[in-house]
Request: fold
Amino acid sequence: MERNHLILAVVAVVALLIAPHLLYSVFLMKVLCFALFACAFNLLLGYGGLLSFGHAAYFGSASYVTAHTMKVWGFTPELGIIAGMLAAALLGLVFGWLAIRRAGIYFAMVTLAFAQMVYFYALQAPFTGGEDGIQAVPRGELFGFIDLRDDISLYYFVLALFLIGFFVLYRTVYSPFGQVLKAIRENEPRAISLGYRTNHFKLATFVLSATFSGMAGAATVLVFQLASLTYVEWQMSGEVVLMTLLGGMGTVLGPVVGAALVVTLQTYLAPFGAWVTIILGVIFVICVLLFRRGIVGEALARFAFLKNDKAQLQRSDVAEATVTKEAAHDPVKPL
Reply:
């Protein structure tokens, strides 16, 4: 299985490396940014069992901090992204410490309330530009010599950010920490009885998810050279939930597939205007009815089912051959 994962990873990386020479690079960068955002959200929802309706707060706050530090303070791209991630992590630490004291729908409503606080602050704060946002953010030069004004150079930088974030989240899920997190999701009282401080694990997961959501928001600023209220609206929180559920909650590749699908539909259905939201809603309902585990989750379930059937058939063939062989060596004695 590890070998199969390695082969799949190599093929995916090679495809991503040649993709900007075949497709529009800005579109690909948008897909990568939202794929990272969905992966970060999936860590909290899919593996932690915590549904947040306010993840736009971390995505948007990081985008504002990155845009302000790069345009006003003259930060380089790498420093601007780090500043955005630190802001998202700090916000996640404060909000998470308060939110994890509740569970279920109460947790979701608390996170939504905090996100709305961030939205109204971004609307009224002097440095955010209000409804205009922060525009014309300079892309600058990475490490002082890589010009990010070139779309291809920027694409590979965004790809590197995505791969780093994806790898960290992947290793987190398959680490001992991730196994404890799954145990808390399945049966928190039992995890507590085993001596685990579940609130500490949930808070760490919340902060980690917020941090990489911030990385996605900071990268989006470099792509579009803009930080606006769109990034902190509740609709953004809804979109990342949609991406995760469409692709497959609790799967590694599900959020990536879901993000690619939603961004593609938004891009190519843009001429329909406001109907895009209705079309996405219809697609979401159809996917929920046909793919209850999400696209990737349903595919993995079908593959596992076929694999188990094949293994069971092989065991039946072996058992039948063994019985036939024993019967041939031990004929029935005459009376």
In short: The longest strand covers residues 134-135.
